Amino acid sequence: MTMRIETCVGIDLGSTTTKAVVLDPDQKVLGRGITNSRSNYDVACKVALGEALINARFALIDGRLQHAGVDAARRQGLLQQFELAFREQQYRSQLRSLAERLHHHAVRTGLGTATLRALEHIAAQMSDESAGLFRLGVARKSDFFRDLAGSRYIELAEALARDGVHAFDPLVGLFDKAILEVENSTEAVGTFAEHARASMARAGDPLLQQAVAQVSEIELEQRTCVGTGYGRQRLPFPEKLIRSEILCHGLGAHAMFPATRTVLDIGGQDTKAIQVDEHGIVTSFQMNDRCAAGCGRYLGYIADEMNLGLHELGPMAGKACRTVRINSTCTVFAGAELRERLSLGEKREDILSGLHRAIVLRAMSLLARSGGVQEQFTFTGGVAKNSAAIKALRDLVRENYGERTLNISPDSIYTGALGAALFAWREVQRQNETTAEVMS
Amino acid sequence: MTDTAADQTRGRPAITKDASQERQKAMIASHFTRLARAPETGDKCAYTFVPGNLTELLNSFGVLPVLPEINALQSGMRGKSRDYIGLAEKLGHSEDVCTYVKCDIGMLKSGNIGPTGERLPSPDLLLLSYTGCFTFLKWFELLAQEYSCPIVMLHVPYQGDGVITDSMRRYVVDQLKKKVIPALERISGRAYDEDLLKEQLARSARAEDDLVWVLESAKHRPSPIDAYFGGVYYIGPIFTAFRGTQDAIEYYRELRAEIEERLRLHKGPVTPDGELGEERYRVVVEGPPNWTSFRQFWQMFSEEGACVVASTYTKVGGVYDNGFRHDPSRPLETLAEYCMGCYTNLNLPTRVQMIARYVQDYSADGFLINSVKSCNSFSAGQLMILREVEQRTGKPGGFIESDLVDPRYFSASNIKNRLESYFQMIAQKRAGAQ
After folding, report:
1. Strands ordered across the beta sheet of B366-372
2. What H or E segment, with its residue span, contains residue A208?
3. Is residue A355 within 8 Å of A293, Cβ to Cβ?
4. How far apart are CA A121 and CA A118, in angstroms?
């Protein structure tokens, strides 16, 4: 008989990324998934949820191995090996779809055989490199297919242009069209069963093979799904299953750190300062209004200006000897100030340290408006991964409010989705109670 | 096009207007027609302000009031303010200046066509009747450059200590006697007639009784009115040209009867989309509304089942629910007290006390502040008010930001997001941990 697990899902459709969290009937996190938000919100939700369900199955495989008496270190090794093989299969699947769409657009645009040959060359090269990308210990620049495949495609196209084989611009134009279609196709990502089967060859351990086979058979039944985030109104959910991200971040932070009383979330386009009570119920909140200065996008813009990856900003600012004072809170003006400071001979590290302090100063103002920073204080959102922002926040909180316990979860980006999933779980409890009443 | 016809064209359900609404519309139309004909009829007019306005005194001289703030908000509601503000900025007025001022200047420079489509007359007098807002002084300095007419300033002392003292009252009465009344005598050619003023004031008090009854009807559950979005219509006649007139008495009598009927039938307020269904949230609102997206702003409340049961903006012309009524036996003293008692002339502790009392007396679930950065009279101190009222009432406060008539500062998705979060927060608190 097929085993079935009832799940509750929370989806946080943010301006930059879409996150999904899957809970089991005991409110335990079974899986988490993330993807970049795109113009097609439905697809972003499906992809994030698909990723969370795959992640849930990894957790279930781990559970099976544990049940079979495999020790923790070996389990970690087996799973890592399996996951890498799985991700490679997934990547290859998307790569095949990309090659097919590139070919389609080249033919449709009437580009000649030279272009088709150039595309085949790039596709073959990228396919050959796939295995290398998913080896143990290899650091990938991003986990999103668009970023991963995009950066390599551009490098290969540049090389072809350099060698005089093919002009660069038409190749980039084709990629821009094709990647949109690949991103917006859930089929390109493939299914767990499909990739799991293909990954088995690399996952040679019989215990693992048995666990994978068993978990592939499990039916993950979604009882209900609650949506939140900026795009929540576009989610195909009934109104009662849509919650404000303020409530979701409050509840999610409470679930991660139950002693939390103040939550700061710095996301892509907004910053939220939230106060919660001992049950995770929001008692007060403040958000940036009229202007998105000081939000996550600010750092994205600065990273572009400095020709750095977003994840490189924090470590570089961490090397600063002094913090340059940045006055402008406007993202665009801060860019101008950055260039001016560089021309005056200031070090990049010192300027970056100042920029991080500027973004946190904006957040401090919202925190003050919302009722201050209480013990304990939890920092969530994409910016909570940035070490320099954390340092600036820690310093400014200490200066203004004294010592506070600062909680940052490695899964902080999923806080909103976790809160939504917990609301979904409560909804199921309500449904169950109603059913029980009707039955009695 | 009438509102109803416009609604039908847009595919919205047509709202049947109450008799009082039709009456108010006719009153306003007739006032603007009188203004438009003033150059031929010889009627005199004074440009003046809403807070603490001296309507009865003007009426006793037969002088017609023109209220630039009202014209600006009407321009906002009619979708004209963007162009007017643009024109004012082109003339050199800064982006940070109060948008009422820029809208008015833009309207003036575009032919001074009023809200009903008829041209407004040039002023015979600029009566700066309220000095609690510094921008008002500057506004009339600008108008003084445009018109060759006398300008009179009534300096209204701020209630810094939360009370009106005898010397403050004497100070205002003295100015009325020595500055305002002589100026009105000069432009109207009539002598000050105190008996006529007393008759006006007696009529004011009658209308004021009914207005207070209407606003306080929101203490019932469900409230038969929305005391903010609906409230701004209810205060129209009393804060503009009609206080002290028989028309105002009849309007408020009719309005009261309609509300009494709604109350009897346990009906909620009428919103842009028809009657409010279930009253899910009762809130108090501080600050002026946004006029450029007024309907959309209201819908953000009504779609959530939120009803505003009390608001401070409906006290902007004058505060009545603390017991004040115009007193015909002390005509100039009562006008002085009215001027000094308008909402923005109250100090912050008094405003805090007033909002906290509203939250309690009207059984509100919380209170919201709509903060308009370019309006210092309202927005200075609002964050302190937020914290204080939260502490005193234990009810959650919410904070949104928009503008009076500059559509560039109404960020619909942000405001909606914040309002939804706020209402869901109330619901969550109500439901407790589960």
Report:
1. B306-311, B281-286, B366-372, B397-402
2. helix A206-217
3. no
4. 5
Interface test with A, best of B390, B402, B424, B434 (most A CBs within 10 A): B424
Amino acid at position B190, single letter: R
- The domain A260-408 having CATH identifier 3.30.420.40: the answer here is yes
pTM of model > 0.80: yes
Chain B CB contacts of A426 below 8 Å: 434
Distance, in Å, from the CA atom of B98 to the CA atom of B373, rounded to the nearest integer, reads 9
Any CB–CB contact under 8 A between A234 and chain B?
no
Give the mean pLDDT of A73-86.
90
Q: Which helix (H) or strand (E) holds A226?
A: strand A219-228
CB pair distance less than 8 Å for B409 and A246: no
Mean pLDDT within A356-379: 92
Query: Residue A244, by phi and psi: left (phi above 0), alpha (psi -120 to 50) or beta?
Result: beta
Percent of the residues in chain A that have a pLDDT greater than 70, as a whole number: 95
Residue A275: list chain B partners with CB under 8 A: none
| Domain edges within chain B | 12-431
**What is the identity of the amino acid at B55?**
T
Please state, in angstroms and as integers, the Cα–Cα distance from residue A386 to each residue in A172, A267, A416, B33, following that order.
31, 12, 18, 64
List the helix and strand counts (H, then E) for chain B: 19, 10
To the nearest whole Å, the CA of A410 is away from the closest chain B CA by 26
Please give the structure tokens belonging to residue B170: 């004497």
Yes or no: say if B178 and B155 are a contact pair by the CB < 8 Å rule.
Answer: no
Residues 6+ apart with CB under 8 A from A247: A228, A282, A419, A423, B421, B424, B425, B428
- Give the model's pLDDT for residue A306: 83
pLDDT tens-digit series, residues B235-285 = 999 999 999 999 999 999 999 999 999 999 999 999 988 999 899 999 999
- Angle (deg, nearest 10), helices B68-77 and B99-109: 90
Task: Quickly tell me which residue has 């847009």 as its tokens.
Answer: B10
User: Tokens at residue B268, please?
Assistant: 């909620």
Q: Is A271 on the interface with B (CB under 8 A)?
A: no
Q: Which residues contact B390 (CB under 8 A, 6 or more apart)?
A: A284, B396, B397
Q: What is the DSSP string of A379-421?
A: EESGGGG-HHHHHHHHHHHHHHH----EE--TTGGGHHHHHHH
* A292-332 residue pLDDT tens: 677 888 888 888 888 887 888 889 899 999 988 887 767 77
Question: What is the C-alpha to C-alpha distance for residues B100 and B294, in angstroms, rounded to an integer?
Answer: 15
Q: Which phi and psi (to 5°) does residue B412 adopt? A: -55, -45
Give B-chain residues touching A416 at CB under 8 angstroms.
none
Q: What is the mean pLDDT of chain A?
A: 89
**Are A73 and A58 within 8 A, CB to CB?**
no
Residue B20 makes CB contacts below 8 A (sequence gap 6+) with B251, B254, B255, B258
Nearest residue in B to A365, CA atom: B383
CA distance B406 to chain A (A): 12
Distance of CA B172 to the CA centre of its chain: 23
Query: Maximum distance among all alpha carbons in chain B?
Result: 72
- Measured CA to CA, the distance from residue A235 to residue B179 in angstroms comes to 64
Q: Are B433 and A281 a contacting pair at CB < 8 A?
A: yes
Min Cα distance A423 → chain B (Å) is 9
Chain B CB contacts of A282 under 8 Å are 421, 425, 428-429
Gap between the Cα atoms of B117 and B32, Å rounded: 9
Looking at CA atoms only, how far is residue A259 from chain B in angstroms?
Answer: 15
Phi, psi of A259 (to 5 degrees): -85, 5
Distance, CA of A255 to CA of A263 (rounded, Å): 12
Q: Tally helices (H) and strands (E) across chain A.
A: 15, 9
Going from N- to C-terminal start, the domains of chain A cover 52-219, 260-408
Q: In a 3-state reduction of DSSP, which class is residue B284?
A: strand
Looking at CA atoms only, how far is residue A289 from chain B in angstroms? Answer: 7
